[in-house]
Amino acid sequence: MNENQGGDRQMFEGNWTCSSCGAGITQLPFQPDPAREGGLVCRDCHKQRMANKPRNDGPREMHKGDWKCAGCGGSITELPFEPDPARADQLKCRDCFRK
Fold it and tell me: Full-prediction pTM beyond 0.90?
């Protein structure tokens, strides 16, 4: 079941259990993969994990290359990750990614 909760974010309704605290989860901002439902966490546990996660405030390593945007066909010369060659045809420029 899908439901739009204000704004553009689509929420998915279901009956899941948090793998950290055991609380019930009734809404998620993504459709979970049934094979990975055992790793879902509730909003509170997710916030706690993110607060405890070490931050890397330094500059991000950029990877240079020559790719084409799957959205607009424009040139992409730099990415903040090393793209998987098998999925290079799915890369998007910053503007298309934000859309």
Answer: no
